[in-house]
Write a structure and sequence with these properties.
Elements: H1 2-10, H2 12-39, E1 45-51, E2 59-65, E3 72-73, E4 81-82, E5 93-100, E6 103-109, E7 117-122, E8 132-134, E9 147-154, E10 159-166, H3 169-172, E11 187-193, E12 203-206, E13 214-222, E14 233-240, E15 250-256, E16 272-273, E17 284-291, E18 294-301, E19 307-313, E20 320-321, E21 339-342
Length: 357
């Protein structure tokens, strides 16, 4: 008995350590998931709407919303980027912003008949780089215009994709019947870049078959809400630019397995705009994304009572008109691109004295 007692006493510190470990380890394990959940807490996002007024001669403005319906001014309704003094290319129309790796990248249309687009970047939407022109057409001269550029980040190829609408002299001369009364016949073109300093050659990105004039393409990712990534696809919303009496002036969808295509050459049926039950007048300038499992499609509807419109869908098939629910800080906001942006990335000064009136 004495020997046994001496052994227990000798190893008592070790046994006590094991006792503490076995009793407190379950509590430690149980607390761990709470810490992990806290670390993965999502940062608040805002619906950001860059837009222009008039003909785009004054500059680019910003509005925001927390739920996607009630939009308020940022910067108290003042421009965030004044129109650059670029002679015949000094407009700031159709602003498009993408947020990637802590930086906001913005592009815009510089004139009605231009070979270039505008570009600037910012870390907080308040302080912007010096605007510069990007000659997207480079040494190609047989082109009439460069409209509504959209900048996207391609996670598959790790590069920025810029797409826009242009009329080339070749398309004007092909007599395919898609030329409009203003002398345009648009297709979608693209360039790629990783640093906004060097760019690929411009190439045709999309043309429906049979060929018709299309403008204002915008691309979004669709994860199909399944665990299998093979179900993922990309969707492009685009405007049929034919006259309304020929089935155009509305927005349609096409799909692809890859972000940069190829996309279906047959346009889907009209979902909003002229000839539909949702804001039956010309619709253009769309932006599309999924938020809380619900697709949000924003678009510009000049001539309607809403100025800027919204329709939502759970499946890209069944759409609900939400335009009457929207509240905007000013009338006749023109062709912007609504996007989701982290609130913490936006300078607090832009929120000062911001309101909806």
């Amino acid at each position: 008995m004495v020997a046994s007692f001496r052994i227990c006493k000798r190893y008592r510190p070790i046994l006590w350590s094991w006792f503490l470990l076995l009793n407190f380890l379950p509590a430690t394990i149980a607390a761990q998931p709470v810490e992990l959940i806290a670390e993965k807490k999502e940062e608040p996002e805002l619906f950001l709407l860059p837009y222009f007024l008039g003909n785009g001669e004054t500059g680019i403005y910003l509005a925001y919303s927390r739920e996607g319906l009630d939009f308020k001014w940022l910067n108290n309704g003042k421009v965030v980027i004044p129109a650059p003094a670029w002679k015949n290319e000094s407009l700031t129309r159709d602003p498009s912003i993408v947020y990637h790796d802590g930086i906001f990248h913005m592009v815009w249309t510089t004139s009605w008949n231009s070979r270039s687009i505008g570009y600037a970047n910012s870390k907080d939407l308040l302080h912007w780089s010096h605007p510069k022109k990007i000659n997207v057409w480079q040494d190609f001269t047989a082109v009439r215009n460069t409209w509504a550029p959209e900048v996207h980040w391609d996670p598959e190829k790790n590069e920025f994709l810029i797409i826009w609408s242009s009329t080339t002299l070749k398309d004007l001369a092909d007599n395919d019947g898609s030329k409009d009364k203003h002398g345009y016949d648009h297709r979608t073109y693209a360039i790629r870049t990783r640093d906004f300093k060097s760019f690929t050659k411009p190439k045709l990105f999309y043309s429906p078959q049979p060929e018709i004039s299309v403008i204002d393409p915008f691309i979004a990712h669709d994860d199909r809400n399944t665990k299998n990534p093979r179900d993922d696809r990309w969707v492009m919303v685009i405007k049929n630019e034919l006259a309304a009496n020929r089935g155009g002036k509305n927005l349609r969808l096409v799909f692809s397995k890859k972000m940069q295509g190829p996309y279906d050459t047959t346009l889907g049926p009209p979902i909003v705009g002229a000839g539909t039950e949702i804001v039956n007048t010309m619709g253009e300038g769309p932006s599309l994304f999924k938020y809380k499992k619900l697709w949000h499609l924003y678009w510009d509807a000049p001539g309607s009572h809403h100025s800027y419109c919204l329709a939502t869908s759970p499946n890209l098939i069944d759409w609900t008109n939400r335009s009457r629910e929207m509240s905007l800080p000013t009338k006749q906001m023109r062709h912007g691109t609504v996007l989701l942006a982290p609130e913490k990335a936006i300078a607090r000064k832009l929120f000062e004295n911001s309101s909806s009136k």
